[in-house]
Amino acid sequence: GMGVITAFAWRAHLLVAGDTSGVLHVWNWRQRRGHTFPTGRGTVRRLRFARGGGTSLLLVLFHDGDFAVWD
Q1: How high is the mean pLDDT of the chain?
Q2: pLDDT value of position 71
Q3: Which end of the chain is more exposed for a tag (fewer CB within 10 A), N or C?
């Protein structure tokens, strides 16, 4: 199941939510599709898309202060 949502980020047609289970939930409004990506890293504290309109790089900060970059 889905953990409690702890962070959101959006850009253009993408909405991303992170939860207490360390799962990233990605919704693409244009394609009307959603995907889940288990990170195995624990609670997501913060999500932010990288600067620059032409990129979909997503910065993910986890509860322990570690981070990851997703494309």
Answers
A1: 93
A2: 85
A3: N
Per-residue confidence band for 1, with pLDDT thresholds at 50, 70 and 90 = low
Residues belonging to the chain:
71
d(CA 69, CA 16): 13
Q: Cα separation of 35 and 49, whole Å? A: 17
| Structure token pair of residue 30 | 């244009």
pTM over 0.90: no
Nearest to 48 by CA among 6, 2, 9, 20: 9
Alpha helices in 21-61 (DSSP H): none
Q: What is the DSSP letter of 37?
A: E
